Amino acid sequence: MTEKLKKVEFGDFQTPLALSSNVISSLGDINSYELIIEPTCGLGSFLISLAQQSIPHEKLEGWEINPIYTEEANKRINKLFEQDVNLVKQQDFFEIEWDKGKFNGKTLFIGNPPWVTNSELGKLSSQNLPEKANFHGLKGLEAMTGKSNFDISEWMLIKLLEIISGSDSGIAFLIKTSVARKLIQFIDKNNLSINNISIKEIDAKKHFDVSVDACLFQASGCDFQQNGVRCEVYNAQNWNEPYKIMGVVDSRLVSNINDYINLCHIDKGSEFKWRSGVKHDASKVMELTLHGDKLENGNKEKVNIERDFVYPMYKSSNLAKEILPPPVKFMIVTQKKIGDETNHISTIAPLTWQYLIENSEKLDGRKSSIYKNSPRFSIFGVGDYTFKPYKVAISGMYKNFSFAKVGLFNDKAIVLDDTCYMLGFETKEEANLVYTLLSSEVCKKFINSIVFTDNKRPITVALLNRINLKEIAIEAGLDHEYVNTFNFE
């Protein structure tokens, strides 16, 4: 196995001693713990830092699956204590029989578990996996698709959270921030007796040379259930003072609970239905670029077709710009709504049909199951809303959360790709008012209170459909304009 694959299989991001020492210094009275365990300890960075801070070896223990690391960690730690203490045991975390009785005393679990998912390990045919189980209780399709994918660290820390719940023990682990949020939701959903929850952001690029949002996640057991789960969030430059408090409200995690509570009346559902853009899964065929007066596809081939089914388009990268440029890309839109037959294209636009036939291997070979049993050359995310003359749209991929007004281009509706979300309107006045409301400081503050910027798609249809525009209009003093424009009571 190559070093790269080893790094993936065992989540092998060894913790720099400077970081492990900083973590331990931030934990306060660490001597109050009767036992400190570093599971999946690798080369034992946390145990070494603990020893350097004069924690007696009788209080320390490490677990590590890799026998080479186990031996090397023990050599390093024995040298520090100047005796053969051999604190690290060769132990597979996934084979431990978890029993609260084994950890009666005040125990701290600390360390840096693998930063890898079960599906990534499955691709390697790795045995370094927990027993397959639907531990989130997902149903049907969710359990069969990506939602059943999980980080190995998530599985590990859930086990430890269940162990410390109701006790005076605690955990402190370096994990991806997205995993930390899932753990907070797990605590709430399962009514665990846990408090003092915090996320202390770290610079993962600096410490591990990976581009991912990561943090030190801390939590302590307690003898009562919390009235609402709360988590203090600290930025990487200042672990002394939280800059916001994350929390769970009505079973939903919000990014900034103080701002959210002040604006939660906006979270009552949108009067309009947000839609995603067109999904075709064949950009090199279906998306065209205009060079002079000639169209060219993604394979750099000249495309000579009728314009009947060709529409100007925007992608996320266009919507993210401060000033929306005129469209330079175009999309072949084969249907007016999902399920429409497409054979008529051969009569209306024979050159377009011939182009689709010439590229049928790519189009017929699209892997998504949504295309099976659908008319040939089908697309999705298409309906009346796709062809509305005026739209308010936003990218799902960028973190600036800026909305854009989209109008006609050469008297034709501009369509969006499936990385964008939109509301469609018949009049410019409707679109202008909605754009004003969504671009208001009140709306921005509300979005920032519920969004998590490290998600692959920070903005989703589900998030947008939570925003009630009438409530924003009232906050912004535009309620009369709102009622007059949309004739809503």
CATH architecture of the largest domain: 3-Layer(aba) Sandwich
Class by SSE composition: alpha/beta
Number of discrete domains? 2
**CATH homologous superfamily descriptor of the largest domain:** Vaccinia Virus protein VP39
Radius of gyration: 27 Å
| Largest β sheet strand count, sense and barrel closure | 10 strands, mixed
- CATH topology of the largest domain: the name is Rossmann fold
Nearest-integer average pLDDT: 89
Task: Kindly report the spatial arrangement of strands forming the biggest sheet.
Answer: 3-2-1-4-5-7-6-8-9-10
> How would the global form be characterised?
elongated
Low-confidence stretches: 1-11, 118-129, 138-148
Number of extended strands: 22
Q: Distance N terminus to C terminus? A: 67 Å
By DSSP (H or I, 4+ residues per run), the number of helices equals: 20
Please give the share of residues in helix: 25-40%
Q: Strand fraction band? A: 15-25%
CATH domain class of the largest domain: Alpha Beta
SSE topology:
Blueprint: H1 3-9, H2 17-25, E1 35-38, H3 45-52, E2 60-64, H4 67-81, E3 88-90, E4 107-111, H5 118-123, H6 140-144, H7 152-164, E5 170-176, H8 177-189, E6 194-202, H9 204-208, E7 214-221, E8 230-234, E9 244-249, E10 252-254, H10 257-263, E11 275-276, H11 283-286, E12 287-291, E13 294-297, E14 302-303, E15 310-314, H12 316-319, E16 329-332, H13 345-348, H14 350-358, H15 360-364, E17 390-395, E18 404-406, E19 408-409, E20 412-413, E21 415-416, E22 420-425, H16 428-438, H17 441-450, H18 461-464, H19 469-476, H20 479-486
Parallel strand pairs: 1-2, 1-4, 2-3, 4-5, 6-8, 15-21
Antiparallel strand pairs: 5-7, 6-7, 8-9, 9-10, 11-22, 12-13, 12-16, 13-14, 15-16, 17-18, 17-22, 19-20
